[in-house]
Amino acid sequence: MADPPASLSGQDVGSFAYLTIKDRIPLILTKAIDTLHRHKSEFFQKHGEEGVEAEKKAISLLSKLRNELQTDKPIVPLVEKYVDTDIWNQYLEYQQSLLSESDGKPSWYRCPWLYVECYMYRRIHEAIIQSPPINDFDVFKESKDQNFFESQESVIALCTHLQELRRTIEDLDANQLKTQFFQLLQISLWGNKCDLSLSGGESSSQKTNVINSLEDLKPFILVNDMEHLWSLLSKCKKTREKVPIVRVDIVLDNSGFELITDLVLADFLLSSNLATEIHFHGKSIPWFVSDTMIHDFNWLIEQVKYYDHKWMSKCGVDWENYIKMGRWVYHDHMFWTLPHEFAAMSQVAPDLYAELQKACLILFKGDLNYRKLTGDRKWAFSVPFHKALSGFHPAPLCSLRTLKAEIQVGLQPGQGEQLTASEPSWLVTGKYGVVQFDGPLAPSLEVPGE
């Protein structure tokens, strides 16, 4: 088998990877430092002088990190012992082994972009855990919460839509159900526009009713495999006697408005009997500014439940019940915050791979998951998605992603080149999206994931 193409990296001056390392990442670090600084009095109230000293220490570690990055210093091993420290340090040795003698040590611009961007967030986490007693502080929590509060009207519209749909769901024929499924898939897709790492942590909330925009947005879906998802889930539903559990896994991306769109889709999948249980996968440490962790997941459901709007609070109550009944299950695993592409999962995290094999369908939300699915490499636009997955096939899977990185596979011949000619930045603005499926179109339903 031919070697896969080279990784995207900051060595390509002017590329999105280069501009991310040069401009966006330092901005995110500056915001993290500012957030710590603004919470100084809170740390003092909680922990006295010790809290103030911890804040100073965390800020000094983050300032050092920013300086290393801006001067393209060599990547240094992690020092604070944590559950994943050894794996990260082994990965750094692996990066070193890829460089020739003349290249010197792995550094911010020389290494793969996927690696250094993940490493930066892991170093932010290290700075915080090295600074007790504020070692459980999430520097991104404020931005995540703000995104949710600023998207309130859209959240109400979506929750109202869901509750109205649930009241009539029994009466819908297969075609009407399919139409609703496609609509909620698209809402979950476009919910991915609300990405705080792309905006450098600036507000990116959803202020309009996304349901009303779906028709206008349809032409911007470059790969649309929704029919495949429908036929797969319909088949699973029909063979319920053989396979009583139809499990859909959602690998989450952003908290806030995007997470609401995912929960609404998950609710619909249960209400319509297209699935019997939903498994959510989130991050175990703060990641890419707005990624979902367990406390974001629980906090959001709590906010929805106690909101002063009957349909919104009804959603919160229902969602809490799904969790209590075990029909919604939340998992986190350190693999999601490692630098590895997903093709390495079966070796690095065989337990997680085995867990995903239990799914009838896995939905991967967002851009970072797409980059890890495809190895964040310089694939040609028309390379099949299946090939770019490099052997990662735990179960039928689908990427719901708005494009925010210079990688896209599975396009028609000439489609990517045409877009590049007419819109040079089409790959990175979040304007375009894909619903991109990989899996057998007539799956064996005896053993999900085979």
Automatic annotation (TrEMBL):
Gene3D superfamilies: 1.20.930.60, Uncharacterised protein PF01937, DUF89, domain 3 (3.40.50.10880). One of its GO terms (molecular function) is S-adenosylmethionine-dependent methyltransferase activity. Keywords: Hydrolase, Manganese, Metal-binding, Methyltransferase, Nickel, S-adenosyl-L-methionine, Transferase. The keyword Lyase does not apply. One of its GO terms (cellular component) is nucleus. Metal-dependent phosphatase that shows phosphatase activity against several substrates, including fructose-1-phosphate and fructose-6-phosphate. Its preference for fructose-1-phosphate, a strong glycating agent that causes DNA damage rather than a canonical yeast metabolite, suggests a damage-control function in hexose phosphate metabolism. Has also been shown to have O-methyltransferase activity that methylates glutamate residues of target proteins to form gamma-glutamyl methyl ester residues. Possibly methylates PCNA, suggesting it is involved in the DNA damage response. Subfamily III proteins have a conserved RTxK motif about 40-50 residues from the C-terminus; the threonine may be replaced by serine or cysteine. This is Sugar phosphate phosphatase.
